[in-house]
Design brief:
This protein is α/β, with parallel strands linked by helices and about 400 residues long. An eight-stranded mixed beta sheet has the order 12-11-8-13-18-19-21-22, sandwiched between helices. A five-stranded parallel beta sheet has the order 2-1-3-4-5, with helices on both faces. A two-stranded antiparallel sheet has the order 6-7. Helix 12 links the parallel strand 18 and strand 19. The two termini are about 25 Å apart.
Length: about 400
């Protein structure tokens, strides 16, 4: 994912420095070129050899170290960097960066970098809340730095409060957001639906389907990585929502219908990947539920057709993409749905194919538009998501 990308990690003198070894390893596994710069104080908490072993690159500490591979190291590295993350960032180094002090290899390199710079503060709660530190961080934000909100928890000093370095996975997500994909969807508003809906029969039972939400979540994440402003309307799933996405949680098809239609006018692209339950109980009150031969008997009625409504009320320039899951006549049924519901694209798959449909990490789809069909081979749902977005972007141009 990060092949050809250079990530500079700046490590400062905080006990949380040990976490960055794992972050460096995670980045290497994604094929990034990871360059670590440490302050002298940071070497009291973790040894440079740790980073050199993990990254395969010399860990830089001394500005005047002559044993390096570039001629003017801080300038050469600054030119190569695609993103710089300073984590953990102490109050001292934050102050230096704020006022342009460059008295070591880390601050000198940061000052020379033109790429995005991300700062992850980590310090005692009282230090973090100090008005001077808060002012310095606000000034960094004004100058184009991105400052990550620290976590709340028990700190190394025993205090409980904000100032804890976020998890390595959270730090990684900030880096991926910045450099994992080209930002061809910057400024585009996208709404994605995902997951199943539940239609209550009574306080105990409900009607639903086997959707896990994996495909919709993969699409939402792909949109975010490509720079879009993403709203994810999700039924109940066991998946952690993608970061940097507005999540609207719903339960029933009616909930989803209202959540989608109330936001539809603000969207440039709407992708309905949710598997909405087609029916709901027509009668749900206990006194009206009938029993026949000891078995529960209820009437059913159709749930609201979200795609049909969106197609009928599509604003100019808006792009609608639906999903079709079929067990037979996949292309014919999907194309009929495309035309009937006034969609721009439909992603169709056959639930009888191995590796496609619900609960899998892969999918096999055919992308159908009014004038073309594109059959994709089996691939991960993340790859499918990006292929769908590629086609949408090509059609929108």
């Amino acid at each position: 994912m990060l092949k050809g990308k250079t990530v500079v990690l700046g490590v400062t003198g905080s006990i949380a420095a040990y976490k960055i070894a794992n972050l460096a390893s995670m980045l290497v596994k994604l094929h990034a070129d990871v360059q670590v710069i440490m302050t002298q104080n940071a070497t009291n908490f973790i040894h440079p050899i740790t980073f050199e072993t993990l990254t395969g690159n010399k860990c830089l500490v001394d500005t005047f170290d002559r044993n390096f591979q570039y001629n003017v190291e801080h300038v050469a590295l600054a030119k190569r960097a695609d993103v710089v993350m300073i984590a953990p960032a102490t109050a001292n180094v934050i102050a230096k960066m704020t006022y342009g002090l460059a008295d070591d290899m880390l601050t000198t390199t940061v000052l020379a970098c033109k790429c995005k710079k991300i700062v992850a503060p980590a310090m005692n709660t009282q230090m973090y809340q100090n008005p001077i530190v808060q002012k310095n961080m606000n000034m960094l934000i004004e100058m184009g730095f991105e400052v990550i909100q620290p976590a709340v928890g028990m700190l190394a000093c025993g205090d409980i409060g904000e100032g804890k370095l976020p998890t390595e996975q959270e730090l990684l997500e900030y880096i991926l957001k910045e450099i994992a994909c080209q930002k061809d969807m910057t400024g585009v508003n996208v709404l994605v639906t995902a997951g199943p809906t539940r239609e209550a029969i009574d306080p105990v039972r409900y009607i639903t389907n086997h959707s896990t939400g994996k495909m919709g979540y993969a699409i939402a994440r792909a949109c975010m990585l490509r720079g879009a402003n993403v709203t994810l309307v999700s039924g109940q799933t066991d998946i952690t929502p993608p970061p940097f996405v507005e999540v609207v949680s719903v339960v029933s098809a009616k909930d989803m219908f209202e959540a989608v239609t109330s936001r539809a006018d603000q969207q440039d692209i709407i992708i309905k990947a949710a598997a909405v339950a087609d029916y709901r109980p027509a009668v749900v009150s206990d006194e009206k539920v009938k029993k026949a031969d000891g078995e529960l008997s209820i009437g059913l009625e159709r749930t609201d057709d979200i795609l049909k409504y969106l197609g009928e009320h599509k604003k100019e320039g808006q792009f609608l993409c639906g999903f079709s899951m079929e067990t037979q006549n996949m292309l014919e049924n999907s194309r009929a749905k495309l035309e009937k519901k006034n969609l721009d694209m439909i992603a169709a798959n056959n639930l009888k194919q191995n590796g496609a449909g619900f609960g899998t990490d892969t999918n096999i789809i055919t992308i159908i538009t009014k004038d073309a069909e594109l059959q994709l081979e089996k691939m991960s749902k993340e790859e499918v998501a990006h292929r769908i977005l590629d086609e949408i972007q090509a059609k929108r141009k």
